[in-house]
Amino acid sequence: MNTPLKKRLLWLLGITLFALLLAWIWHGSWQRQATEQELRAQQQLLVYRAALESEIARFENIPRALRSHPVLLRALASPRNAQALHQANLLLAQLAADTGVEALYMMDGEGTTLAASNWDQPHSFIGQNYRFRPYFTDALEGSFGEFYGVGATTGIPGYFFGLRLGREAGVTGVLATKITLLELERSWQPAQDLVMVVDPDQVIALASRAELKFQTLLPLSPQARARLERTRQYHPMSLTPLALGRQGEQLSWQGHQYRVSELPLPRLRWRLQLWWPSRPLYDTASLVTAVAGVSIIALVLLLLYWRQRRRYVQAQLRAKGELERKVMARTAALAASNRQLERQVQERFQAEARLRSMQHELIQVNRLAALGQMAASVAHEINQPLTALRNQSVNTLLLAQRGHADQVEQSLQTMGRLVDRIARLTSQLKLFAATRRKTRGRARLDEALDNVLSWLGPRVEEQGVRLHRPAPGVVLPMELHALEQVLANLIGNGLDALADTADAAITLDADDRRLHLWDNGPGIAPELLDKVTEPFFSTKQAGQGLGLGLAIVRDLVEASDGRLAIAARPEGGACFTLSWREHEQPRD
């Protein structure tokens, strides 16, 4: 084996060993940190579990202490005795205030509430039937019922206890206690890690982050969803799965990587989980590996330097004169290389200056082209209402001469709408350039559509386009003038697209939270769907549009807390969908 090949193999072997050493250091550092972090997480989980169990345990004996109370037994035995029920209500209210529970209530054997601590409150349990709750059926069968869920009457989540009242052969009922764990959840919020309690159906029942609560770690099976619907445990929550990414034991959520530590909870077969960020482990392991690698490289370089220095001294003693000549030759070569490098740098500076000048000229040309297109488009759009305004003014003069006062008033109103349309056309650029403001409000779709058709009606009739209107009475969560602007742009674009289409039609369909508008024109190419809402982007020929219509529609819809979606229809044409979310969720 020749010497150069041997040296290359030795270098390759050294680099491989160095890489393996760094990988071993990185893995050892990461493993050590992961073990330490897991121990800390388990200690934290023990603290959280003790606090949760303590919070629940200090209330679970309340039903046992009251199961033989004569006031409650008398009310249970005489459900039609108003005095007995009133005394039971007062007793439960006083005990709830003294113990700090959310509610105390007593049900008969059919699950109907006879007495409750909140008997005089708007969301009283009196008369409500909770036979469908598992804690009721468990208590009625003789066991101590426990259950966690969203309140069927108040909509407030809570932990429920149930215990049977009465004797075996006598009248039976159930005494229930509801406590809230909201304060405990709030105590978890300052923690940087994510703390949550997961039930056997993978539903997050308690969480330190509000957006995690009542989500699922895995999609619910049909059997589990049917069981939860039957007991109304989390009604009306949607129980949608979290958007989680999984890679081995690591989870990713909202752009962050987590590892999960878990501790079982005996109650309700819950699991207490702690999600802690894993990114610091990788960063620390990488830092330790980098420091170790730099230290190893520095040591190797020091050894190489010492060896080279030794050789250099020996060579200097043997051939000082030859070395001096080589140094002079090398200096001359470096000087020549330096001069060549300076010339190359100067040439590059000159090329960059020319490139910046050409870019500046190109920007100016694009600006002038955009201004020319904008001016031509505005002139084209304004020409039609100006012509209509001129014709309307002549008709108004003739009607006035003939004494038709009613028709004169209608004509003047039409002229006013044409002037408003011109103002809207010229204000599109101002509307697009202005700072976005909120356009949330309430507007009748019929009124807005009538106003828009008063401007675009002649075009619709001239092109022979069939316009299918939605059912009357729809009210959308948007200001009237903003809704008119949206409809004018969408219908105007539809008319432009249907210019050469036979049997052309534009269809609108809407409810109180959604508006669909589609046509049977040529549609929009799939590769352009993400670009058509960009400012000054247009598929029309120069002078036929500013390219601002859909950009304005998008901004107006988003300013009303809505969303604009554009899709190509399989049967041809384009479909525009405007949707809004509800701001408030109704209580059950």
TrEMBL record:
Histidine kinase domain residues: 377-584
Membrane-topology descriptor: Multi-pass membrane protein
GO cellular component: plasma membrane
InterPro entries for this protein: HATPase_C_sf, HATPase_dom, His_kinase_dom, HisK_dim/P_dom, HisK_dim/P_sf, Sensor-like_sf, Sig_transdc_His_kin-like_C, Sig_transdc_His_kinase_DctB
Assigned keywords, A-Z: ATP-binding, Cell membrane, Kinase, Membrane, Nucleotide-binding, Phosphoprotein, Transferase, Transmembrane, Transmembrane helix, Two-component regulatory system
Subcellular location: Cell membrane
Assigned EC number: 2.7.13.3
Enzyme class: transferase
Any one GO MF annotation of this record: ATP binding
Tree of life domain: Bacteria
Transmembrane regions listed in the UniProt entry: 287-306
Keyword check for ATP-binding: yes
Catalysed reactions, as listed in the record: ATP + protein L-histidine = ADP + protein N-phospho-L-histidine
PANTHER family: C4-DICARBOXYLATE TRANSPORT SENSOR PROTEIN DCTB, SENSOR HISTIDINE KINASE
UniProt-recorded name of the protein: histidine kinase
